[in-house]
Amino acid sequence: MTQTQKHNILIVLLVMAFFTGATIQFSEGSSLIGIALFILALILTTRIKLQGTYITKSSKFYVVLGILIVLADIVYNLKALNQLGTLDSMAFFMGISFMAYGTSQYRRMGEFGMYMSGTFIVFFLFFYSFLPSLNNNFIHDFDHYLVLIPSLFIATAISNMDIHIVGIETVHFNGFEDATVVIGGPCSGLYSMMLLVGIIVGYVKMEHLTDRKRIYLLVFTAIIIAYFSNLIRVTILYIVAYNYGIEKMMFVHVYLGWIIFIIISFGIMTVLNKLN
Asked: Helices 107-125 and 86-101 meet at what angle, rounded to 10?
């Protein structure tokens, strides 16, 4: 892999992280910060080093398709009055990736983004749409047995907190204030797992890597790292909420997840570079 390709991959990861951070800010934090992160993501796209300068006639289809994907997501959310979420950021990223794929200068980066965002969207629809439609309790069971209980065990082991389970995804504590916290959705850690797997799939497809054993090992390692990183994140949120209140916890919540994601992503990309 050339230095230019490595540079471009790192820029794309930062863009994706800022997009994700922006959507979290829009839904749970400050809209102004969300706009700032979104603008930073757009500015970073200009730092991608170009190779080529034209759009072929046959590629215009991908540019138009990408524009339609972005517009469709915007129109849907405006009509439904929905807040932007992680799935929306991936839809935007997929649209932008199709547009990039339709140009000679951004084609490789577009291919990476198409596979990465496509992988995430497929996983998201399977876990958060298809399984619930079958009345499957996988998400709730995962949140309860693999996130809430282990994170609560860690929190109470390192700090003497009066905190206990009151629901499948809910804990109650009486610390700085009497409050309950719901551990679900983004707190499950599935989002970061899906994003990291998407990164690996996108990179493998873009660089045509063939060492399947090492790739599968990397996917497994990424999932394990994402899982335990999320347990640490949730444990930190418990401690902050218990000692400083829900308001401070929410402040930490909107930043901690995507910052950890950036760190893990860079680690994954470093390993992927060595595979090539």
From this structure: 150
Phi and psi (nearest 5°) for 164? -150, 160
Find the range with the poorest average confidence among 61-70, 176-185, 225-234, 239-248: 176-185
Angle separating helix axes 246-275 and 3-28, nearest 10 degrees: 160
The tens digit of pLDDT for each residue in 215-246 reads: 888 888 888 988 888 898 889 888 888 888 88
Whole-number Å distance between alpha carbons of 16 and 38: 10
**Average confidence (pLDDT) over 40-69:** 70
Per-residue burial over 116-145, b if 16 or more Cβ lie within 10 Å, else e, is bbbbbbebbeebeeeeeeeeeeebeebbbe
What amino acid is encoded at 76 in this protein? Y
Q: Rounded CA gap, 143 and 139, in Å?
A: 6
Q: How far apart are CA 148 and CA 241, in angstroms?
A: 15
| Torsion region of 89: left, alpha or beta (phi above 0 gives left; psi -120 to 50 gives alpha) | alpha
Residue 122, SS3 per DSSP? helix
Torsion of CA 175, 181, 186, 190, to 10 degrees: 90
Give me the residue label for tokens 């992503």.
265
DSSP string computed for 20-59: HHHHHHHHHS-HHHHHHHHHHHHHHHTTSPP------GGG
For residues 117 and 73, the answer to whether their CB atoms sit within 8 Å is no
d(CA 70, CA 38): 15
- 187 three-class SS: helix
Average pLDDT over every residue of 79-91 = 72
Coil, helix or strand for 202? helix
- Please give the structure tokens belonging to residue 209: 């890597």
